[in-house]
Amino acid sequence: MELFPDLPFTSWVDTRATLHRFAQIVGKVRLAASPRRNHWWSVPFHVTSRGITTRPMTDGSTIFTIDFDFLDHRLDITALSGRRYSFPLAGNSVADFYDQVHKGLSAVGADVRIALPWPFDLSDSGRPFAEDTEHAIYDAAAVSRYWRVLSQVNLLLEEFAAGYSGKTSPVHHFWHTFDIAVTRFGDAFVDQPPSTDPVTREAYSRDVTSFGFWFGEDAFPEAAFYSYTSPEPAGLADEPLHPSTADWIERGSSHLAVLRYDDARAAPDPRAAVLEFYDSAYRAGATRAGWDIDKWTSPGGVTDPVITAEQRGARQA
């Protein structure tokens, strides 16, 4: 399978908008039916061999899972009891999808209600899902391409995550911003202003460097690998990034390290280019933030000093 297939932003704008809202509906079910975890780790999706999953959830009596199947292009709601409700993703508006999800939850015996049944931080955030008949485009080929890219980036982020032995988030797919990310945490508490919204307060209660990939948006209409450090240390954007096609861009009052998807695809070794980018962005943020880089390094996912020494000796032999 081709690594990083062509993914023009304009080729699936309408499908992406529909799928993003589908994901937000299921994500809000996950939010309502999962024990809360630090930094909202209970909220995102995880990649499977067929699509993305909520992993098991409960309403207090019924254990169930919701899976997007991007091979057969269906949504599957399955309970531990064996009850199952499944329907095609194509041919539904957001309003139809919202209705089907609630029918499915009832069919498997799960009593879950979304607290805020409208999009979060999207252009139509004031319109309830139940009234959205505008978004109804679902191009199965485009969704398959999205999922292939998501799966490939998922494994790259898993590989990159192995190099840090400090507190690290899972690799997960956020339905809020429709990106996939992994975050490395420092040990400093961050004193957020009282006016900061509760989502941000929990997500950034510690200092972090985060790494991910997103599929583009109207303000940045192309897919890209990214990294940021929060709180942003002084002089971050003066640090070099690699490969040379990566750069810093301004995002509000902060900076984002960006390697555009098409630049990564054009590199002689795209996989190596992305890993080099993440590492350079990490070193930029960690150095400026005063992290002890050597303390938390775990090359190849190994922290045992004996094995590390043996590996070092084998490379030198």
From TrEMBL:
Annotated Pfam families: DUF5996
Listed name of the protein: DUF5996 family protein
Source species: Pseudonocardia yunnanensis
